[in-house]
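User: Is it possible to get a 3D structure for a protein together with its bound compound? The compound here is heme C. I've pasted both below.
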Amino acid sequence: MESNSSQMTPATVPVWDIGVRIFHWALLAAVFVAAMTGFFGSPDSLQIHLIAGISISLLVLFRLIWGFSGSTYARFRTFLFSPVKVRERIQEMRAGRHTRYIGHNPLGAWMIFALLASLIFIVCTGTVVLGGVFKQGPLAFITSFATGRFVQEIHQILAFGLVGLIGLHLAGVAYETVFGKEKLISAMISGNKPAGSNVPAPRFAPARPIVALIAFIALGMAGTTGVASFASRPGLGVPTAAIDPLYAKECGACHFAYHPSMGTAALWDGVLSHLDQHFGEDASLPDATRAQLAAYLKENSSEHWDTRIAHVLATANPKEPLRFTATRFWTRMHREIPDQVFASKAVGFKGACNACHSDAKTGLFAPQNIEIPEGARL
Ligand code: HEC
Ligand code: HEC
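Assistant: Yes, that's possible. Here is the predicted structure of the complex:
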């Protein structure tokens, strides 16, 4: 009987509950998508990048809640180790010794907190970039383009830092698997680890999924409502007034009426001073009309706005100072589009921005609103 019951003792212990495991693998997928679109994506992958970022935020929110409401080893209190413990762990590794931990070991635990903190910083800086550079999201109403550009550098550095942390995390897993004989990867799939004798176990805590769910819904809804209400405010330095009807009529006759925020005062002045030789066309206007347009364009030129387009098109190409399509930014952004696409019936010429940018009229040029028209695709 006695020997029987000892055989009945389970050879494994449940360590990672379902919440931890789903979180872990879903986070891996979301970070992978965010990294691929962030490092290698083009403007049209921004939307996927944002969806990945939102998923990461929700997953991290869940993990923070689960750290207080999950089962024993999911709780933060079971893997809060002092720096002294971390040093001991490193010394142990050096000496080739190995103390077994059922949950995270001290080094692994610090890695979890470093990863979570780094993800939080990346999401926050990403939101600043989205607000300042693209004038979208909850921070658009207070973030300048310059701030967005500056924080973009930090966002990138943090992203490289995260890649480094993930590398160390994998190195740690490899070390534990090889030297510690721990099957960490299968434990993160099955949730179980071999039971060890004389491994100190933390105080048992049951998972409280209902509490977690309520907290997640409450915080998630409060967050979403806040984000939505901030995001609905007009972006800092974003023009919102409708295009002047006279300008729309006179300058929208041959091509779409370029948004005034696209051109510097110097560009508009140059265009209006040479209307009789307007890129090979005669676009002359009566003096009174021209003066009216001049006043409107001067008042709304790029110097007055803080949008991306107002900044990136502001550096004119001295060879063709009156063309947006001659600026370095424009040429770089469109270098992969073949000339036939611009010459196609559906587009016409490079300056027909509205053929591919459905929001060109508003001067916003959001990456989400780019689509080469059906008829122009090769
Ligand atoms: C009679 C037709 C016509 C009218 C009216 C007209 N344009 Fe143009 N515009 C053109 C043509 C043609 C081009 C050059 C197209 C090309 O590059 O093949 C051009 C190009 C431009 C460009 C340069 C686009 C680029 O980046 O390549 C600007 C800026 C511009 N127009 C502004 C204006 C403004 C401002 C007005 C109103 C005062 C105006 N246009 C009215 C025909 C016109
Ligand atoms: C034939 C279609 C087409 C036309 C015409 C066109 N664009 Fe684009 N534009 C694109 C595409 C496609 C991209 C994205 C390039 C990429 O994926 O790298 C882009 C990218 C951009 C971007 C960068 C978007 C971002 O968020 O990174 C800006 C700004 C822009 N275009 C402005 C303009 C302006 C201004 C004009 C007119 C003077 C114009 N485009 C004309 C297709 C076009």
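Residues 42-44, 309, 324-325, 333-334, 337, 341-342, 347, 350-353, 355-357, 365, 367, 370, 372 surround heme C (ligand 2) (CB under 6 Å). The mean pLDDT is 94.
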